[in-house]
Design brief:
With about 210 residues, the chain is an all-beta fold. The chain is built from no helices and 13 strands. The chain has one domain. Helix content is about 0%, strand content about 55%. It is elongated, with a radius of gyration of 21 Å.
């Protein structure tokens, strides 16, 4: 007698497009890698909160005057919760689910010399994805994946510090905040660099040529 085992293939997850209409993503410097936390709201009764890690803006830590820096470009979501209408779910890097948020914004060049924190502000666009974990994590959001889009304004702070023996000055990424705004215009190349409290009213804006 030959035993026949019949298995049922799992259905492909349902991918739901979500436009993020509010909320924030915050990134802070940490000893090994910047840590991120977020609380997002979007269309269709979508809400998500969680934490993860991020990348260092510009890929350098520390950066030097003249280096290119900007907003963090990538946030990986490791732990958190999702609600979608009346459904709820969790995600856990080690148990299943999670995702990433990919931010796009104009870079800027760090000043050659600054005595106060340098604040970079620019409009951003974001594309990303989040999905809850398997049934073992609990919740009722099952077999769903969410494709996220959004835009708003982001701010990143870089703190200057002098090197030993007069070898110059470097800049260390300190923190960044992304504010989502459903009414924000489509981002154009623009940079606002503020050098200390005395220059909080100074705006430097660069726009791409329109043909």
């Amino acid at each position: 007698m030959v035993a026949v085992v019949v298995t049922t293939a799992a259905a492909d997850p349902i991918v739901v497009p979500i436009r993020i209409t509010g909320g924030t993503v915050e990134v802070e410097r940490a000893p090994n890698q910047p840590t991120a936390s977020f609380g997002l709201s979007g269309t269709g009764g979508f809400n998500a909160s969680g934490s993860g890690v991020s990348v260092v803006p510009g890929g350098c830590d520390p950066c030097f005057g003249g280096n290119t820096a900007g907003l963090p470009g990538f946030v990986s979501a490791h732990f958190g919760q999702i609600t979608f209408g009346s459904l709820t779910g969790e995600f856990d890097l080690f148990g299943g689910g999670g995702g990433a948020l990919d931010f796009s914004a104009e870079d800027f060049t760090l000043p050659l010399d600054a005595d106060a924190p340098v604040i970079f502000r620019a409009p951003f666009t974001m594309r990303g994805s989040l999905s809850p974990g398997p049934d073992a994590l609990g919740g009722t959001v099952r077999n769903f994946g969410f494709e996220l889009t959004g835009l708003g304004t982001g701010t990143a702070v870089f703190v200057p510090r002098d090197l030993a023996q007069g070898l110059g000055r470097e800049f260390v990424f300190d923190r960044a905040v992304f504010h989502f705004d459903a009414a924000a215009p489509t981002p154009e190349p623009a940079t606002l660099v503020l050098l200390g409290v005395a220059l909080l009213g100074v705006q430097v804006r660069r726009r791409a040529r329109r043909f």
